[in-house]
Amino acid sequence: MDYRTSEGAAGPRGEDLLPASVAAAVKVVIVGGFGVGKTTMVGSVSEIRPLTTEETMTQAGVGVDDIAGVERKTETTVAMDFGRISLNDKLVLYLFGTPGQERFWFLWDGLFEGALGAVVLIDTRRLEVSFDAVGRLEERGVPFVVAVNAFPGAPVHPTAELRAAMDLPDSVPMIDCDARDRASSRDTLLALVRYLQSLHTVTPETP
């Protein structure tokens, strides 16, 4: 992207510059199956203009991409989405959204590299499309929370049933969210940060 300053010289926009007070930046990935709302979440919560790599879906994907349940979707992420959000004046999260289609999963390992944690977005109409995301995070030892994205007409299941279907331990937070809503997406990221903090809290030994 070719940004211009007020003087006309190339450079970042003023609103994209990090505040001088920022002391820490953390990489977070947003993962899940095809069409679960990853690009939407990055776009809704990012305080800078998000970088997206969405391309129009073509006939080349017919028979290759599984679009069951999202037949009306016309674009797909082919590399990653990127955004940024400041949770406070000292902590910034860099957000990386992964591509959902299986033919682009080879990019996931690079996006997971250096990530402190992840949000797994799920669609209750198509839980199975996010199973691989959970498995890959577990294999790499990346802590994550599961966010149940709100889709019109999607079935509502008790949390215990969703946990059982995804084989999730009780220690992994599961929360409701609406990826279209900035406040809801921010709350999801805050839940991840609190979970990460809890994992790094050392409980004093009892004498």
From TrEMBL:
Task: Answer whether the UniProt record assigns the keyword Nucleotide-binding to this protein.
Answer: yes
Bilayer-spanning residue ranges: none
Q: Which Gene3D superfamilies match?
A: P-loop containing nucleotide triphosphate hydrolases
Pfam families per record: ATP_bind_1
- Which keywords does UniProt give here? GTP-binding, Hydrolase, Nucleotide-binding, Receptor
Homology family? Belongs to the GPN-loop GTPase family.
Task: Name the chain's protein.
Answer: Signal recognition particle receptor subunit beta
| Species classification | Bacteria, Bacillati, Actinomycetota, Actinomycetes, Kitasatosporales
